């Protein structure tokens, strides 16, 4: 039996908890079943991308997990469409089971590994020590906003440009907010999924058929709350790169040219891991004009598969590069946008998923964004206290050995520790 040990203060994050809990219970029961493999069709439980990523190795993976059981569940933490459980094996070994579901309740991410122990943080020196990982570059900024200026509580190379994965979606949302305010885009306007806009997960819109339509409101919600890559590419296609470039500049990025041309997720996947190996060195060596020309040439459906994402490419100049301070400034801009949006839609979008359980009385507003790619992980929060003072927590890591960076659970856990133990 699963029991909830943590809760979120935001009502919007509770909608999928029954689905997450049901799938987590199924996963635990599946791991306890005798016999090899999966007795049912995996597509009854997993999204197609998860099955395709693991291919014929899915049964072997599940068998290797099952061999470490049977398990008992010690604790379970749901946050919107994600959940984490601590499992105890028959000899007392401890494990972390993580799960991610899509809006239909199918599993789009499932992992089992040794229990992830997050060190307690009693002061900033302990955070500094926790961020020291051999072979990994870590940057961070923890600050509060005073008179439109960030006052640092803790910083670690906060102006170093870092690959950030999906943090770029903050700029897309800012550009969309400007277009909504100007009346050139409407929340109820419908966008069409074209073949050349289909990307890879995270997200679920990539599974929709060609020609599927969704409102700007729905697409933007999925882009932020579920970090849906296809949704982000649809927004970028509707707005155009120039609008997003302006949002980058308006948000105070220290070097806006590093994000020009502004990549879609499909373009990142195709250049970095697609079926033409010449694209990556061409991107790496190219100037701005040559990179624009490269993007024009690859305006086609994606050839990359999830299983191809097996090596870092950020060190060759392929990612979205922001410093921790750039991320903080983008978050501050998003927060200002919520006050300008009379419909309340932007605030609803950015507060749907807080990333970790949040005490709603201590932090009535919580904005979260995560990002990752092979060898890259980052998490950022903007938290507003009851007095209306915004605080930010930005954590970034990268390493050329993806195993040293991991899947982000440890960095997310450190963010949780900062929020609950170190923020004043």
TrEMBL record:
InterPro entries: Beta-lactam/transpept-like (IPR012338), Beta-lactam_cat (IPR045155), Beta-lactam_class-A (IPR000871), ORF_12_N (IPR040846)
Organism encoding this protein: Saccharomonospora viridis (strain ATCC 15386 / DSM 43017 / JCM 3036 / CCUG 5913 / NBRC 12207 / NCIMB 9602 / P101) (Thermoactinomyces viridis)
Taxonomic lineage: Bacteria, Bacillati, Actinomycetota, Actinomycetes, Pseudonocardiales
Gene Ontology MF annotations: beta-lactamase activity
Residue ranges constituting the Beta-lactamase class A catalytic domain according to the UniProt record: 154-343
Domain of life: Bacteria
SUPFAM superfamilies the UniProt entry points to: beta-lactamase/transpeptidase-like (SSF56601)
Protein name per Swiss-Prot or TrEMBL: Uncharacterized protein
GO BP: beta-lactam antibiotic catabolic process; response to antibiotic
PANTHER family: BETA-LACTAMASE, CONSERVED LIPOPROTEIN LPQF-RELATED
Pfam annotation, one family: Beta-lactamase2
Domain ORF 12 gene product N-terminal: 17-107
């Amino acid at each position: 039996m699963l029991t909830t040990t943590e809760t979120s203060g935001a009502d919007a994050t509770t909608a999928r908890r029954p689905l997450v809990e049901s799938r987590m219970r199924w996963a635990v029961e599946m791991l306890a079943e005798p016999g090899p493999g999966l007795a049912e069709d995996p597509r009854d439980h997993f999204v197609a991308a998860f099955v395709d990523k693991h291919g014929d190795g899915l049964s072997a993976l599940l068998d290797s997990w099952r061999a470490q059981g049977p398990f008992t569940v010690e604790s379970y933490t749901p946050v919107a469409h994600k959940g984490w459980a601590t499992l105890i094996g028959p000899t007392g070994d401890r494990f972390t089971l993580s799960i991610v579901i899509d809006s239909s309740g199918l599993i789009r991410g499932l992992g089992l590994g040794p229990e992830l122990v997050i060190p307690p943080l009693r002061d900033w020196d302990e955070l500094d020590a926790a961020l020291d990982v051999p072979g990994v570059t870590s940057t961070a900024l923890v600050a509060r906003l005073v008179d439109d200026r960030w006052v640092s509580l803790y910083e670690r190379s906060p102006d170093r440009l870092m690959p950030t994965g999906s943090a770029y979606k903050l700029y897309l949302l800012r550009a969309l907010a400007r277009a909504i305010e100007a009346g050139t885009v409407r929340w109820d306007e419908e966008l069409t999924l074209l073949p050349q806009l289909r990307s890879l997960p995270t997200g679920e819109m990539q599974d929709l058929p060609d020609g599927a339509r969704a409102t700007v409101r729905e697409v933007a919600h999925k882009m932020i709350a579920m970090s849906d890559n296809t949704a982000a590419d649809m927004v970028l296609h509707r707005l155009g790169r120039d609008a997003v470039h302006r949002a980058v500049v308006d948000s105070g990025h220290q070097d806006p040219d590093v994000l020009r041309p502004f990549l879609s997720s499909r373009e990142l996947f195709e250049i970095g891991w697609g079926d033409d190996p010449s694209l990556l060195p061409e991107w790496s060596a190219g100037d701005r004009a040559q990179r624009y020309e490269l993007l024009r040439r690859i305006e086609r459906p994606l050839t990359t598969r999830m299983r191809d994402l097996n090596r870092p490419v950020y060190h060759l100049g392929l990612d979205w590069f922001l410093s921790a301070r750039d991320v903080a400034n983008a978050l501050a801009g998003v927060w200002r946008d919520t006050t300008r949006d009379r419909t309340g839609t932007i605030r609803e979008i950015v507060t749907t998923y807080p990333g970790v359980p949040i005490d709603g009385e201590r932090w009535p507003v919580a904005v979260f964004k995560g990002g990752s790619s092979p060898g890259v992980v980052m998490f950022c929060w903007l938290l507003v206290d009851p007095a209306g003072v915004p605080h930010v927590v930005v954590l970034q890591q990268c390493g050329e050995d993806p195993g040293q960076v991991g899947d982000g659970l440890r960095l997310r856990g450190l963010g949780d520790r900062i929020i609950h133990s170190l923020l004043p």
